[in-house]
Amino acid sequence: MNSRTRSLSTAICLAACIGLPHLPAVADRQPDATDVAGKRPLDFASDQVTSLAITFPNDTEPVILERSDAGEPFDFAGDGTETADAAAVDELLRILLEARIEAAHPLSDEDAIAARERPIEFGIRHTSGTEYTLRIGRRPAETDEPNARPPRVEASIVFDQDGNIVELPETEPEPENQEPGPVFIEYDSDDPDFPWSRVSESVTLSVADTVFEALPGDITELVEARPARDRDDRN
């Protein structure tokens, strides 16, 4: 056994003996930015999350859901009249943690640029203390020149049964609706070894439309009324 092997064995033994905190398993520690399809960047369970911070597009401050121990119900630090909806929060975490990459796109992609303008941001804290940030967005559906009056079509000229000219009403073409763009996701972390931070700096990653469609529009979708007894206990 050479010195390098002995050092590695010693380090493993020490880690086991002193009980270092469990670090999250991150799928594919060395992802290739050109081969990301099907990869799952966050490979840990929702019961290993102790905090979820959500910043909605129209907000400047995050809404925070926390719990003291992994696996316990989340608490919502609001005005005391509401508490986290456990089922809704667990489902949201499942969607975020199980998201798989569909493709990589250039950073200059016009849809990706539009998606980055108004993302919904999620801050996830793992039981190890590691924090991950996910920014998810998409270009919304658009109507061509929504504020401009469409060009008018010239009226048709026809004759009635008596030979009189009848001018048909002018018609306006229906504006064409543009479908929303792909759903893009960006990853970041305070873990310097988290590889998906580097990937997100070189390409824009897309995920399934269903990920975006499952995201809450506001915090009311993740909380419920707190029982009166619990409100009294908090006061």
Count the helices. How many?
6
Radius of gyration: 26 Å
Q: How is the biggest beta sheet arranged?
A: 8 strands, antiparallel
What is the count of structural domains?
Answer: 1
Order of helices and strands: HEEEEHEHEEEEEEEHEHEH
Structural class, by secondary structure, is alpha+beta
Annotation, overall tally of beta strands: 14
Distance between the termini: 63 Å
Proportion of beta-strand residues: 15-25%
Please give the order of strands in the largest beta sheet.
3-2-1-6-7-12-13-5
Stretches with pLDDT under 50, minimum 5 residues? 3-23
Shape, per Cα inertia axes: flat
How much is the average pLDDT?
80
Helical content stands at 10-25%
Q: What is the gist of this entry?
A:
The protein is α+β, with helices and mostly antiparallel strands and 235 residues long. It has helices at 3-18, 86-97, 110-115, 195-202, 209-213, 228-234, and strands at 49-55, 63-66, 75-76, 82-84, 103-105, 120-126, 131-137, 142-143, 157-159, 165-167, 177-178, 183-189, 204-207, 223-225.
Describe this structure in words.
The protein is α+β, with helices and mostly antiparallel strands. It contains 6 helices and 14 strands. The longest helix is centred in the N-terminal third of the chain and has 16 residues, at 3-18. The relative contact order is 0.19. Mean pLDDT is 80; it is low at 3-23.
What are the main properties of this structure?
flat; single chain; 6 helices; 14 strands; alpha+beta; disordered N terminus; 235 residues
